[in-house]
Amino acid sequence: MSPTDLIDKPAPADTSLLTRRVTVAPGMCGAGSLFFGQLGDWTWEAVKAATGTNVYAARSADGHPTYLSFYYFRVRGSRHIQPYGIAFGDEFDVTSRVFDLGPQSVMTLHRLSRPGTPATGLDPRAFHEEQREDCLYVENYNRWISRSHPDSNEGLVEASPAGHRHEHLPPLPAEHSPRGICGRARKAGTFHPGGIPGRTASAPYTTTYTLDRVRDLNGAGLMYFASYFAIVDTALLRQWRALGRDPRGFSRRTVVDHRIGYFGNADADAELTLTVRLWHSDTVAGDEIADVAVTEAATGRLLAVCSIQQLLEDS
Predict the structure, then answer these.
(1) What share of the chain is helix, strand, coil (3-state, %, to 5)?
(2) Which of 120, 226, 239, 303 has the fewest CB atoms below 10 angstroms from its CB?
(3) Which of helix, strand or coil describes residue 6?
(4) Could you tell me the residue range of the domain that residue 220 belongs to?
(5) What pTM value is reported for the model?
(6) Contact, 140 vs 75, CB < 8 A?
(7) Tens digits of residue pLDDT in 215-240
């Protein structure tokens, strides 16, 4: 059975809404990027089903390959369900809804709930204002892009697929659009340019990472979106060790909010610089926000910014 066979066929009245029952397999969970990669696959499947565009083989009007790239990825959880607590054998009902953001972009929301959880609507209000403690929420903002140079991952340009249908999708309310959030983060190099009220920042920690052509590229030769999660975690673990913390505790942290803005791509073997600043809560012990910037070492070009709210084991 192919992944798309798992999707219940949407009713003709609302092609933007899809549901499926999922059993988590070993390749869908664990440390690093596996679970986030699975979430991304569900986004591609949802967009394909909702728009009719074959996202796996899309081409622009001039015949060049175009890719549904991830520009903003956010996962919100709780102590009851969080992305690093998913184990194989877990079962979830996955509800997905796709929203119109014009010909060049698309927004997809997912909600993961345990079987038997009462069904509720899925819209931006549910994600931002009515989050349930027993559900995991995912927000994906994707943009259609193409290479401007065939042998380089730099200088990617917007390129919508020929015949892409989007006008029938529900519009995303302006107050819930991530465009402003991403624009400010790209300009400032952080999701928190003015600091974080009620939190005190640590001294920055810096490390480097060489982009691995074996592990970090996708089938199109681009830096794989889920690799960013693993690369950021590599930097956080190095900082964790530098702070003298027990490495076993890193695997037991609870991540309740994880977001990445993707602002650039890089070629294999590029050296990356990752700068991490921890923001500690002034009132809740063990409540930290890791603020991470990923740049290309040779050029200083910003590739990504990340913000992770994590609760330590003893908090």
Answers:
(1) 20, 35, 45
(2) 120
(3) helix
(4) 182-311
(5) 0.91
(6) no
(7) 999 998 899 999 999 999 999 999 99
